[in-house]
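Practice record 12: protein with magnesium ion.
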Amino acid sequence: MNATESFIKTSKPVVVSTAPLVQLRDVHLAFGATDVLRGIDVEVHRGQAVSIIGPSGSGKSTILRCITGLLRPQRGDIRVGDTAVHTLRGEVELIALRRRVGFVFQQYNLFPHLTVLQNLVIAPTRVAGRSKTEAEQDARSLLEKVKLAHRADAYPGELSGGQQQRVAIARALAMRPQLILFDEVTSALDPETVGDVLTVIRELVREGMTCVLVTHEMRFAEEVSDHVYFTEAGRIVEHGPPAELFNRPRHERTRSFLQRTL
Ligand code: ADP
Ligand code: MG
């Protein structure tokens, strides 16, 4: 088994009921006088795909930024594995956390002056201290995984938006994270390239990568998620398995949101 295969499993493992990999408890966050998160409880178990859906401005991205320690809540607990994220202060600890938590955004932010392969090699060699040979070998198999092995030597500017986003996903995987957060990764893409990006994410979920997805692709969230949270105005209005939340929402707010978006 090579290094990449050892962290990418071939079939979705059975999730046993151990402690959640990610746990937010009663998280409150305000920007100045504006309450943005007003008591958020979220759990993500190893191997699960969890989606967060809800109207624009409801706090979805803020939740993800709290998980990576980019934002610190005023109240509440955030745990990723054994790490109490809400207590981390030092840059060194935060960098260590971010090595374990991949984050893919709407804006893929690849380094434009580096080739696709170099984009994948830079963090594993500079931040994780891996050898160039090992990092390149990993990078090539990840590019195969996202169906871009033939573009290893291209520059980001030569690729379509969807291809760049697949490189961004491969770049996150190159750090061998414990989980990946996806924040509206298809929202800025041309419709014809969205499908290829969703295919890559679907495959990761199937392999048992722990994923948290903020998405407006409701059908996709319904298809791939183990659990779905619906947020509005900084609160979780309701959450549950996708079959329940999408087909039998309990709250009027969830119902009207889904009617507008499905
Ligand atoms: P979503 O991702 O669901 O669209 P966000 O988490 O980005 O929502 O934002 C939630 C709310 O917090 C919005 O009202 C937004 O305007 C506000 N907000 C986000 N970031 C900041 C910031 N850095 N300063 C002030 N307000 C912010
Ligand atoms: Mg957002």
